[in-house]
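Late entry, evening session. Most of the bench is empty. Finally got around to the prediction I had been postponing all week. Sequence below, unchanged from the version circulated by S.P.
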Amino acid sequence: MIESVLADTAHSSNERIAVVGGGVVGCVVALRLAAAGRQVTLFEAAPSLGGLAAPWELGTLTWDRHYHVICESDLTLRSLLRELELEGEIRWSSVRTGFFSGGRLHEFTSVKDFFAFPPLRLHEKLRLGAAIVYASRVDPASLRAITAANWLTKLCGRRVYSQIWEPLLRAKLGANAASVAASFIAVTIRRLFGARANTKGAERFGYVPGGYARILAVLRERLETAGIAIRCSTPIDRIEPRGDAVTIGVGGATEPFRHAVVTVPIPLVAALVPELANAERAAFNAIPYAGVVCASLLLDKPISPYYIMNITDHWVPFSAVIEFSNVTGTEPFGGKSLVYLPKYVAPNDPLFNQDDDTIRHAFISALIRMIPGFDPAGVSAFRVSRVRNVFPFPIASAPYDPPSFATSLPGVTLATAAQIDDATLNVDRSIALANAAAEHVLHGTPQGSPR
Protein backbone atom coordinates (compact mmCIF):
# COMPACT_ATOMS: atom_id res chain seq x y z
CA MET A 1 0.00 0.00 0.00
CA ILE A 2 2.71 2.51 1.02
CA GLU A 3 4.74 1.82 -2.13
CA SER A 4 1.80 2.69 -4.39
CA VAL A 5 1.10 6.03 -2.72
CA LEU A 6 4.78 7.03 -2.47
CA ALA A 7 5.09 6.70 -6.24
CA ASP A 8 2.83 9.73 -6.59
CA THR A 9 4.76 12.00 -4.21
CA ALA A 10 6.52 14.13 -6.81
CA HIS A 11 3.33 14.77 -8.77
CA SER A 12 1.60 17.18 -6.37
CA SER A 13 3.48 17.69 -3.13
CA ASN A 14 1.75 21.03 -2.48
CA GLU A 15 -1.85 19.82 -2.75
CA ARG A 16 -3.82 20.57 0.44
CA ILE A 17 -6.45 18.00 1.39
CA ALA A 18 -8.97 18.12 4.23
CA VAL A 19 -10.04 14.83 5.81
CA VAL A 20 -13.28 15.31 7.73
CA GLY A 21 -13.75 12.80 10.54
CA GLY A 22 -10.99 11.40 12.73
CA GLY A 23 -12.22 7.85 13.18
CA VAL A 24 -10.19 4.89 11.96
CA VAL A 25 -11.16 5.56 8.33
CA GLY A 26 -10.19 9.23 8.50
CA CYS A 27 -6.89 8.53 10.24
CA VAL A 28 -5.83 5.91 7.70
CA VAL A 29 -6.91 8.02 4.72
CA ALA A 30 -4.89 10.92 6.11
CA LEU A 31 -1.85 8.70 6.66
CA ARG A 32 -1.95 7.36 3.09
CA LEU A 33 -2.39 10.79 1.52
CA ALA A 34 0.43 12.29 3.57
CA ALA A 35 2.68 9.41 2.50
CA ALA A 36 2.01 10.50 -1.09
CA GLY A 37 3.21 14.02 -0.33
CA ARG A 38 -0.14 15.75 0.17
CA GLN A 39 -0.54 18.42 2.82
CA VAL A 40 -3.30 16.98 4.99
CA THR A 41 -5.46 18.53 7.70
CA LEU A 42 -7.53 16.08 9.74
CA PHE A 43 -10.69 17.50 11.34
CA GLU A 44 -12.44 15.72 14.22
CA ALA A 45 -15.40 17.04 16.21
CA ALA A 46 -14.58 14.99 19.32
CA PRO A 47 -11.72 15.87 21.70
CA SER A 48 -9.67 12.88 20.51
CA LEU A 49 -9.23 10.63 17.48
CA GLY A 50 -10.69 7.16 17.06
CA GLY A 51 -14.44 7.50 16.54
CA LEU A 52 -16.15 4.24 17.49
CA ALA A 53 -12.75 2.76 18.41
CA ALA A 54 -11.84 5.59 20.78
CA PRO A 55 -11.08 4.78 24.44
CA TRP A 56 -12.68 6.39 27.46
CA GLU A 57 -12.48 6.29 31.24
CA LEU A 58 -14.51 3.72 33.12
CA GLY A 59 -13.93 4.32 36.80
CA THR A 60 -10.13 4.38 37.10
CA LEU A 61 -9.71 2.32 33.90
CA THR A 62 -8.96 3.63 30.40
CA TRP A 63 -10.15 1.19 27.76
CA ASP A 64 -12.21 0.93 24.57
CA ARG A 65 -15.60 2.62 24.66
CA HIS A 66 -16.97 -0.23 22.52
CA TYR A 67 -15.84 -3.83 22.25
CA HIS A 68 -13.28 -4.67 19.55
CA VAL A 69 -11.40 -7.91 19.01
CA ILE A 70 -8.98 -8.95 16.27
CA CYS A 71 -9.81 -12.04 14.22
CA GLU A 72 -7.05 -14.06 12.61
CA SER A 73 -8.78 -13.39 9.28
CA ASP A 74 -8.51 -9.58 9.77
CA LEU A 75 -5.55 -9.35 7.40
CA THR A 76 -5.94 -5.63 6.59
CA LEU A 77 -6.06 -4.66 10.25
CA ARG A 78 -3.08 -6.87 11.00
CA SER A 79 -1.18 -5.27 8.12
CA LEU A 80 -1.75 -1.82 9.61
CA LEU A 81 -0.65 -3.08 13.03
CA ARG A 82 2.49 -4.47 11.40
CA GLU A 83 3.10 -1.06 9.85
CA LEU A 84 2.71 0.50 13.32
CA GLU A 85 5.05 -2.16 14.75
CA LEU A 86 2.25 -3.51 16.94
CA GLU A 87 1.33 -6.80 15.29
CA GLY A 88 3.92 -8.65 17.33
CA GLU A 89 2.20 -7.47 20.50
CA ILE A 90 -1.13 -9.11 19.70
CA ARG A 91 -2.14 -11.61 22.34
CA TRP A 92 -4.37 -14.43 21.12
CA SER A 93 -6.74 -16.56 23.11
CA SER A 94 -9.41 -19.16 22.40
CA VAL A 95 -12.74 -18.13 23.85
CA ARG A 96 -16.02 -19.76 24.67
CA THR A 97 -19.53 -18.87 23.55
CA GLY A 98 -22.80 -19.10 25.45
CA PHE A 99 -26.49 -18.85 24.60
CA PHE A 100 -29.10 -17.50 26.97
CA SER A 101 -32.29 -19.17 25.81
CA GLY A 102 -35.50 -20.11 27.60
CA GLY A 103 -34.30 -18.49 30.80
CA ARG A 104 -31.17 -20.66 30.96
CA LEU A 105 -27.54 -20.25 30.00
CA HIS A 106 -26.10 -22.90 27.66
CA GLU A 107 -22.55 -23.56 26.48
CA PHE A 108 -22.25 -23.21 22.71
CA THR A 109 -18.52 -23.55 22.02
CA SER A 110 -17.64 -27.06 20.94
CA VAL A 111 -19.30 -29.65 18.71
CA LYS A 112 -20.29 -31.48 21.87
CA ASP A 113 -22.03 -28.35 23.19
CA PHE A 114 -23.74 -27.90 19.86
CA PHE A 115 -25.28 -31.36 19.96
CA ALA A 116 -26.27 -30.95 23.61
CA PHE A 117 -28.07 -27.64 23.01
CA PRO A 118 -31.54 -28.30 24.51
CA PRO A 119 -33.74 -25.93 22.49
CA LEU A 120 -33.11 -27.85 19.26
CA ARG A 121 -33.78 -31.44 18.19
CA LEU A 122 -30.97 -33.57 16.76
CA HIS A 123 -32.00 -33.23 13.12
CA GLU A 124 -32.35 -29.46 13.60
CA LYS A 125 -28.83 -29.25 15.03
CA LEU A 126 -27.44 -31.15 12.07
CA ARG A 127 -29.26 -28.89 9.67
CA LEU A 128 -28.10 -25.75 11.51
CA GLY A 129 -24.48 -26.92 11.50
CA ALA A 130 -24.57 -27.62 7.78
CA ALA A 131 -26.17 -24.22 7.16
CA ILE A 132 -23.41 -22.38 9.05
CA VAL A 133 -20.69 -24.14 7.06
CA TYR A 134 -22.51 -23.36 3.82
CA ALA A 135 -23.06 -19.71 4.81
CA SER A 136 -19.35 -19.30 5.53
CA ARG A 137 -18.53 -20.25 1.92
CA VAL A 138 -21.36 -18.79 -0.17
CA ASP A 139 -20.80 -15.64 -2.23
CA PRO A 140 -22.70 -12.87 -0.39
CA ALA A 141 -23.33 -11.05 -3.68
CA SER A 142 -25.75 -13.82 -4.66
CA LEU A 143 -27.89 -13.10 -1.59
CA ARG A 144 -28.56 -9.37 -1.89
CA ALA A 145 -32.15 -9.71 -3.13
CA ILE A 146 -33.17 -12.39 -0.59
CA THR A 147 -34.21 -11.63 2.98
CA ALA A 148 -32.18 -13.24 5.72
CA ALA A 149 -35.45 -14.52 7.17
CA ASN A 150 -36.38 -16.43 4.00
CA TRP A 151 -32.85 -17.67 3.35
CA LEU A 152 -32.23 -18.91 6.88
CA THR A 153 -35.68 -20.49 7.09
CA LYS A 154 -35.01 -22.38 3.86
CA LEU A 155 -31.58 -23.52 5.07
CA CYS A 156 -32.45 -24.39 8.66
CA GLY A 157 -36.21 -24.84 8.88
CA ARG A 158 -38.88 -22.63 10.39
CA ARG A 159 -38.39 -23.77 13.99
CA VAL A 160 -34.61 -23.22 13.99
CA TYR A 161 -35.15 -19.79 12.48
CA SER A 162 -37.70 -18.82 15.15
CA GLN A 163 -35.64 -20.31 18.01
CA ILE A 164 -32.18 -19.05 17.02
CA TRP A 165 -31.87 -16.73 14.05
CA GLU A 166 -34.93 -14.54 14.43
CA PRO A 167 -34.12 -13.48 18.02
CA LEU A 168 -30.48 -12.77 17.07
CA LEU A 169 -31.47 -10.71 14.04
CA ARG A 170 -34.08 -8.85 16.05
CA ALA A 171 -31.51 -8.09 18.77
CA LYS A 172 -29.15 -6.64 16.17
CA LEU A 173 -31.62 -4.89 13.85
CA GLY A 174 -34.91 -4.48 15.69
CA ALA A 175 -37.87 -3.90 13.38
CA ASN A 176 -35.62 -4.24 10.31
CA ALA A 177 -34.78 -7.88 11.09
CA ALA A 178 -37.49 -9.20 8.78
CA SER A 179 -36.33 -7.22 5.74
CA VAL A 180 -32.52 -7.26 5.97
CA ALA A 181 -30.75 -8.95 3.05
CA ALA A 182 -29.25 -12.41 3.54
CA SER A 183 -25.87 -11.06 2.38
CA PHE A 184 -25.62 -9.19 5.70
CA ILE A 185 -25.73 -12.33 7.84
CA ALA A 186 -23.59 -14.34 5.38
CA VAL A 187 -20.69 -11.88 5.69
CA THR A 188 -20.96 -11.92 9.48
CA ILE A 189 -20.89 -15.73 9.59
CA ARG A 190 -17.89 -15.82 7.24
CA ARG A 191 -15.82 -13.50 9.46
CA LEU A 192 -16.65 -15.31 12.70
CA PHE A 193 -16.20 -18.73 11.10
CA GLY A 194 -12.67 -17.62 10.23
CA ALA A 195 -12.00 -17.01 13.93
CA ARG A 196 -12.42 -20.76 14.52
CA ALA A 197 -9.67 -21.83 12.11
CA ASN A 198 -7.17 -24.29 13.60
CA THR A 199 -8.72 -24.07 17.07
CA LYS A 200 -10.83 -27.26 17.06
CA GLY A 201 -13.98 -25.17 16.83
CA ALA A 202 -13.20 -22.67 19.59
CA GLU A 203 -13.15 -19.06 18.47
CA ARG A 204 -9.73 -17.40 18.61
CA PHE A 205 -9.54 -13.66 19.12
CA GLY A 206 -6.75 -11.22 19.80
CA TYR A 207 -6.10 -7.78 21.27
CA VAL A 208 -3.22 -5.38 21.66
CA PRO A 209 -2.28 -4.73 25.31
CA GLY A 210 -3.62 -1.33 26.21
CA GLY A 211 -6.49 -1.73 23.77
CA TYR A 212 -7.24 0.89 21.14
CA ALA A 213 -5.85 3.58 23.43
CA ARG A 214 -2.40 2.21 22.60
CA ILE A 215 -3.14 1.59 18.90
CA LEU A 216 -4.51 5.11 18.44
CA ALA A 217 -1.64 6.68 20.37
CA VAL A 218 0.89 5.05 18.02
CA LEU A 219 -1.25 5.93 14.99
CA ARG A 220 -1.42 9.57 16.10
CA GLU A 221 2.37 9.67 16.45
CA ARG A 222 2.65 8.44 12.86
CA LEU A 223 0.18 11.08 11.69
CA GLU A 224 2.11 13.84 13.42
CA THR A 225 5.44 12.56 12.12
CA ALA A 226 3.96 12.63 8.60
CA GLY A 227 3.22 16.33 9.04
CA ILE A 228 -0.55 16.00 9.26
CA ALA A 229 -2.30 18.88 11.02
CA ILE A 230 -4.67 17.28 13.54
CA ARG A 231 -7.53 19.48 14.68
CA CYS A 232 -9.69 17.78 17.29
CA SER A 233 -12.65 19.47 19.01
CA THR A 234 -13.31 21.10 15.61
CA PRO A 235 -16.77 20.34 14.23
CA ILE A 236 -17.27 21.23 10.57
CA ASP A 237 -20.19 23.50 9.63
CA ARG A 238 -20.31 22.80 5.90
CA ILE A 239 -18.27 21.74 2.86
CA GLU A 240 -18.73 23.64 -0.41
CA PRO A 241 -17.00 23.58 -3.80
CA ARG A 242 -15.68 26.96 -4.94
CA GLY A 243 -14.21 26.88 -8.43
CA ASP A 244 -11.29 24.48 -8.41
CA ALA A 245 -11.19 24.46 -4.59
CA VAL A 246 -13.27 23.20 -1.70
CA THR A 247 -14.01 25.36 1.31
CA ILE A 248 -14.37 23.96 4.81
CA GLY A 249 -16.57 25.98 7.13
CA VAL A 250 -15.33 26.03 10.72
CA GLY A 251 -16.82 28.24 13.41
CA GLY A 252 -18.22 30.76 10.95
CA ALA A 253 -14.97 31.05 8.98
CA THR A 254 -13.91 29.17 5.85
CA GLU A 255 -10.65 27.53 4.81
CA PRO A 256 -9.72 26.60 1.24
CA PHE A 257 -8.50 23.12 0.25
CA ARG A 258 -7.91 21.42 -3.06
CA HIS A 259 -9.88 18.34 -2.01
CA ALA A 260 -12.02 17.08 0.87
CA VAL A 261 -12.50 13.48 1.96
CA VAL A 262 -15.66 13.06 4.05
CA THR A 263 -15.62 10.07 6.43
CA VAL A 264 -18.59 10.87 8.69
CA PRO A 265 -21.68 8.58 8.74
CA ILE A 266 -23.73 8.91 5.55
CA PRO A 267 -26.85 10.21 7.41
CA LEU A 268 -24.82 13.33 8.28
CA VAL A 269 -23.37 13.92 4.82
CA ALA A 270 -26.36 15.62 3.20
CA ALA A 271 -26.45 18.36 5.85
CA LEU A 272 -22.68 18.76 5.83
CA VAL A 273 -22.44 19.04 2.02
CA PRO A 274 -25.56 21.04 1.07
CA GLU A 275 -24.77 21.37 -2.67
CA LEU A 276 -25.01 17.64 -3.42
CA ALA A 277 -27.31 16.73 -6.29
CA ASN A 278 -30.90 16.11 -5.17
CA ALA A 279 -30.91 12.48 -6.35
CA GLU A 280 -27.65 11.85 -4.53
CA ARG A 281 -28.98 13.40 -1.33
CA ALA A 282 -32.14 11.28 -1.55
CA ALA A 283 -30.10 8.11 -2.08
CA PHE A 284 -27.93 8.86 0.95
CA ASN A 285 -30.93 9.60 3.16
CA ALA A 286 -32.59 6.32 2.11
CA ILE A 287 -29.75 4.14 3.47
CA PRO A 288 -30.97 2.54 6.73
CA TYR A 289 -28.68 2.72 9.73
CA ALA A 290 -28.59 1.11 13.15
CA GLY A 291 -27.37 2.81 16.29
CA VAL A 292 -26.23 1.46 19.63
CA VAL A 293 -26.65 2.18 23.29
CA CYS A 294 -23.82 0.30 24.97
CA ALA A 295 -23.18 0.02 28.70
CA SER A 296 -19.68 -0.73 30.00
CA LEU A 297 -19.37 -2.36 33.43
CA LEU A 298 -16.48 -3.18 35.73
CA LEU A 299 -17.41 -6.09 37.99
CA ASP A 300 -15.73 -7.54 41.06
CA LYS A 301 -16.60 -11.03 39.81
CA PRO A 302 -17.10 -12.45 36.30
CA ILE A 303 -20.59 -13.09 34.98
CA SER A 304 -19.73 -16.21 32.98
CA PRO A 305 -16.82 -18.00 31.26
CA TYR A 306 -18.01 -16.77 27.83
CA TYR A 307 -16.68 -13.95 25.67
CA ILE A 308 -20.08 -13.56 24.03
CA MET A 309 -23.40 -14.61 25.45
CA ASN A 310 -25.99 -14.56 22.68
CA ILE A 311 -29.53 -13.86 23.87
CA THR A 312 -32.75 -15.17 22.36
CA ASP A 313 -35.21 -14.27 25.14
CA HIS A 314 -37.33 -11.26 24.19
CA TRP A 315 -37.54 -9.70 27.65
CA VAL A 316 -33.80 -9.05 28.03
CA PRO A 317 -33.20 -5.29 27.41
CA PHE A 318 -29.76 -5.69 25.79
CA SER A 319 -28.67 -7.59 22.67
CA ALA A 320 -25.81 -9.66 24.15
CA VAL A 321 -23.38 -9.92 27.04
CA ILE A 322 -19.80 -9.30 25.92
CA GLU A 323 -17.38 -10.27 28.69
CA PHE A 324 -14.17 -8.84 27.30
CA SER A 325 -12.04 -9.99 30.22
CA ASN A 326 -12.57 -13.55 28.96
CA VAL A 327 -10.34 -12.54 26.03
CA THR A 328 -7.77 -10.51 27.96
CA GLY A 329 -7.92 -11.93 31.45
CA THR A 330 -8.64 -9.62 34.37
CA GLU A 331 -5.08 -8.35 34.88
CA PRO A 332 -5.47 -5.34 32.49
CA PHE A 333 -8.49 -4.27 34.55
CA GLY A 334 -7.01 -4.46 38.03
CA GLY A 335 -8.43 -7.92 38.67
CA LYS A 336 -11.94 -6.92 37.66
CA SER A 337 -14.13 -8.21 34.85
CA LEU A 338 -14.95 -5.87 31.95
CA VAL A 339 -18.41 -6.41 30.45
CA TYR A 340 -20.24 -4.67 27.61
CA LEU A 341 -24.04 -4.74 27.31
CA PRO A 342 -24.97 -3.42 23.84
CA LYS A 343 -28.47 -2.70 22.64
CA TYR A 344 -28.74 -2.12 18.90
CA VAL A 345 -31.61 0.18 18.02
CA ALA A 346 -32.84 2.53 15.31
CA PRO A 347 -31.31 6.03 15.37
CA ASN A 348 -34.60 7.52 16.58
CA ASP A 349 -35.23 4.94 19.31
CA PRO A 350 -36.48 6.40 22.64
CA LEU A 351 -33.67 4.54 24.44
CA PHE A 352 -31.30 7.33 23.37
CA ASN A 353 -33.29 9.75 25.53
CA GLN A 354 -33.11 7.65 28.71
CA ASP A 355 -30.61 8.77 31.32
CA ASP A 356 -27.84 6.56 32.65
CA ASP A 357 -29.67 5.75 35.90
CA THR A 358 -32.74 4.46 34.04
CA ILE A 359 -30.63 2.30 31.73
CA ARG A 360 -28.53 1.05 34.65
CA HIS A 361 -31.64 -0.02 36.57
CA ALA A 362 -33.08 -1.92 33.56
CA PHE A 363 -29.79 -3.62 32.64
CA ILE A 364 -28.76 -4.56 36.17
CA SER A 365 -32.25 -5.89 36.93
CA ALA A 366 -31.97 -8.15 33.87
CA LEU A 367 -28.56 -9.45 34.97
CA ILE A 368 -29.96 -10.28 38.41
CA ARG A 369 -32.72 -12.29 36.75
CA MET A 370 -30.36 -13.98 34.23
CA ILE A 371 -27.28 -14.82 36.30
CA PRO A 372 -27.69 -16.86 39.51
CA GLY A 373 -25.82 -15.17 42.34
CA PHE A 374 -25.20 -11.93 40.48
CA ASP A 375 -24.60 -9.20 43.08
CA PRO A 376 -25.26 -5.61 41.94
CA ALA A 377 -23.02 -4.40 44.78
CA GLY A 378 -20.12 -5.84 42.80
CA VAL A 379 -20.60 -3.30 39.97
CA SER A 380 -17.76 -0.86 40.62
CA ALA A 381 -18.29 1.23 37.46
CA PHE A 382 -21.11 1.67 34.96
CA ARG A 383 -21.10 4.02 31.98
CA VAL A 384 -23.30 4.33 28.89
CA SER A 385 -22.20 5.16 25.33
CA ARG A 386 -24.79 6.34 22.81
CA VAL A 387 -24.13 6.43 19.05
CA ARG A 388 -27.08 7.00 16.73
CA ASN A 389 -25.39 6.06 13.43
CA VAL A 390 -23.15 3.01 13.75
CA PHE A 391 -23.58 0.79 10.69
CA PRO A 392 -25.76 0.57 7.56
CA PHE A 393 -27.39 -2.63 6.43
CA PRO A 394 -28.82 -3.81 3.09
CA ILE A 395 -32.56 -4.27 2.66
CA ALA A 396 -33.56 -7.12 0.34
CA SER A 397 -36.55 -5.28 -1.17
CA ALA A 398 -34.23 -2.49 -2.36
CA PRO A 399 -30.98 -4.08 -3.58
CA TYR A 400 -28.16 -2.09 -2.08
CA ASP A 401 -25.94 0.01 -4.33
CA PRO A 402 -23.21 1.51 -2.14
CA PRO A 403 -22.27 5.12 -2.85
CA SER A 404 -19.21 5.69 -5.01
CA PHE A 405 -16.14 7.46 -3.69
CA ALA A 406 -16.71 10.25 -6.22
CA THR A 407 -19.66 12.55 -5.52
CA SER A 408 -21.56 14.92 -7.80
CA LEU A 409 -19.25 17.68 -6.54
CA PRO A 410 -15.70 17.91 -7.91
CA GLY A 411 -13.14 17.73 -5.15
CA VAL A 412 -15.43 15.99 -2.65
CA THR A 413 -14.82 12.29 -1.96
CA LEU A 414 -16.80 9.96 0.32
CA ALA A 415 -15.27 7.28 2.53
CA THR A 416 -17.93 6.06 4.94
CA ALA A 417 -19.25 2.82 6.40
CA ALA A 418 -22.12 2.87 3.88
CA GLN A 419 -19.55 1.89 1.24
CA ILE A 420 -18.59 -1.35 3.01
CA ASP A 421 -20.72 -3.57 0.83
CA ASP A 422 -22.69 -6.38 2.50
CA ALA A 423 -20.63 -6.23 5.69
CA THR A 424 -21.33 -5.38 9.28
CA LEU A 425 -18.95 -2.67 10.44
CA ASN A 426 -15.57 -3.78 11.79
CA VAL A 427 -12.12 -2.23 11.98
CA ASP A 428 -10.63 -4.54 9.35
CA ARG A 429 -13.13 -3.53 6.67
CA SER A 430 -12.86 0.14 7.72
CA ILE A 431 -9.12 0.11 7.04
CA ALA A 432 -9.68 -1.57 3.66
CA LEU A 433 -12.18 1.18 2.83
CA ALA A 434 -9.67 3.87 3.83
CA ASN A 435 -6.92 2.35 1.69
CA ALA A 436 -9.23 2.21 -1.34
CA ALA A 437 -10.50 5.76 -0.80
CA ALA A 438 -6.95 7.12 -0.65
CA GLU A 439 -6.13 5.32 -3.91
CA HIS A 440 -9.20 6.93 -5.47
CA VAL A 441 -8.10 10.43 -4.42
CA LEU A 442 -4.55 9.86 -5.65
CA HIS A 443 -5.21 8.01 -8.89
CA GLY A 444 -8.91 8.30 -9.67
CA THR A 445 -9.59 4.59 -9.16
CA PRO A 446 -11.57 2.66 -8.22
CA GLN A 447 -14.66 4.62 -9.23
CA GLY A 448 -16.93 2.51 -7.08
CA SER A 449 -16.64 1.24 -3.55
CA PRO A 450 -14.51 -1.63 -2.20
CA ARG A 451 -16.20 -5.01 -2.45
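Two things to note before I forget:
Residues 427-443 form the longest helix (17 residues).
The domain at 2-47+232-287+401-443 is CATH 3.50.50.60 (FAD/NAD(P)-binding domain).
Will write this up properly tomorrow.
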